[in-house]
Write a structure and sequence with these properties.
239 residues; alpha/beta; 6-stranded parallel β-sheet; binds zinc ion
């Protein structure tokens, strides 16, 4: 058993071995991982986003249209978010984002792939870009890393031709209207966009959907016909 050997090795070697062959559950850290780096109990309590709005994937009591999409369709055509942003997925995403952990990114991508829908695949994956200042500070764009892992597994290209020209930190404390204002002109496509018909924007978590909406509008203005969103998780309704 790797876990038995780990205890007898020097801490550095044990940490290295743990990185290559993780033996404990990435979520609870106190049981042995069965598959995808998670123990059986954590795999059993994954918060699946089964009943959600058919346009924006907002978690609901039953599959239908959410209040916002009833009034106005979002700029993107559809969203796939297989998990609700709740335990233990929320902790895994935070650890991937702030801990810069590639093993966490791989595990989350595999969880996403297990639940991926059938149907026509987009031509490219477009990760939500970070502003260069934010990227320097964090050193890791979780959406781009996730898109790369998904792209490798699905044999799809990743296109990173969108840049973020406006840094908008701590959006979560703002109202929806303020978020929208804040994001106006936040993204730009500096070079001519290839003639994509069908793309998927990739993000780790979608909260109000304002960021992916802004990005989807820009892509549509640049001639993309069908824009879908792939997000690991979706938060429940935000006022
Ligand atoms: Zn566990
Ligand atoms: Zn909706």
């Amino acid at each position: 058993m790797i876990s038995d050997y780990c205890s007898k090795l020097s801490p550095r070697l044990a940490a290295l071995l743990q990185k290559v062959f993780p033996c404990e559950c990435l979520a609870c850290r106190n049981a042995r991982a069965e598959s995808i780096g998670l123990c059986r109990a954590c795999l059993g309590r994954l918060p699946k986003n089964e009943h959600c709005c058919r346009f924006c994937a907002e978690p609901m009591l039953q599959a239908d249209l959410c209040g916002r999409c009833t009034q106005k369709r979002p700029a993107f055509d559809d969203m796939f978010a297989p998990f609700v942003f709740a335990e233990p997925v929320d902790a895994l995403i935070r650890e991937m984002k702030y801990g810069k952990k590639p093993e966490m990114c791989r595990a989350l991508a595999r969880l996403f792939l297990q639940r991926i829908r059938h149907g026509p695949r987009p031509e490219v994956l477009i990760p939500v870009p970070l502003h260069p200042h934010a990227l320097r500070k964090r050193g890791f764009n979780q959406a781009a890393e996730l898109a790369k892992v998904l792209g490798r597994s699905l044999d799809m290209a990743v296109w990173q031709g969108v840049v973020r020209v406006k840094n908008t930190p701590r959006q979560s404390s703002l109202s929806l209207a303020a978020r929208r204002r804040n994001l106006q002109g936040a993204f730009r496509i500096p070079e001519k966009i290839p003639s994509f018909q069908h793309v998927a924007i990739v993000d780790d978590v979608v909260t109000t959907g304002t960021t992916v909406e802004t990005l989807a509008s820009l892509l549509k203005k640049n001639g993309v016909r069908h824009v879908e969103v792939w997000s690991l998780a979706r938060t429940p309704h935000q006022p």
